[in-house]
Design a protein that fits this description.
2,3-Dihydroxybiphenyl 1,2-Dioxygenase, domain 1; 3 helices; about 20% helix
Length: about 140
């Protein structure tokens, strides 16, 4: 069902500070410019980390789900893992068949492809994002 790891989502109270930190670790060219996803209530940027990416996520307001995460983890931290899947609808059905709860309905994510999240209580304590990718990460 799951393909390759696309990215690790990291919540941060300041995307500007996080960009500076990751640029020091991976080089200036590895960190994208930040952009807003108002429909999801977040500002994001990506860090190219060799075989995967790190998605830095900052809430746009207190109504953002990331704001709730930061209330519990003020310094930020790992928020989710994102895996590619070939067909999101099939992956959702497979996840449900294996007892995972799907959070909400599919929507467009930061990469411009369809995504959905799986409940962390059903995924070993980790919030998992499934992202539709043409080759499913293979």
């Amino acid at each position: 069902m799951f393909g390759r790891l696309n990215h690790v989502g990291v919540a941060t109270p300041s995307i500007a500070k996080a960009r500076e930190h990751y640029a020091g670790l991976f080089g200036d060219g590895a960190v994208s410019e930040a952009f807003d996803l108002p429909e999801q209530g977040v500002r994001v940027c990506f860090v190219e980390a060799g075989n995967t990416q790190i998605e830095l996520i900052e809430p746009l307001s207190d109504a953002s789900p990331i704001a709730g995460f930061l209330a519990r983890n003020p310094a930020g931290g790992q928020h989710h893992l994102c895996f590619e899947v070939a067909d999101l609808d099939i992956a959702i059905n497979d996840a449900r068949a294996h007892g995972a709860r799907v959070l909400g309905t599919p929507r467009l994510g930061a990469h411009g492809t369809r995504i959905v999240f799986l409940h962390p209580k059903d995924m070993g304590g980790v919030l998992v994002e499934l992202m539709e990718a043409p080759d499913g990460g293979h």
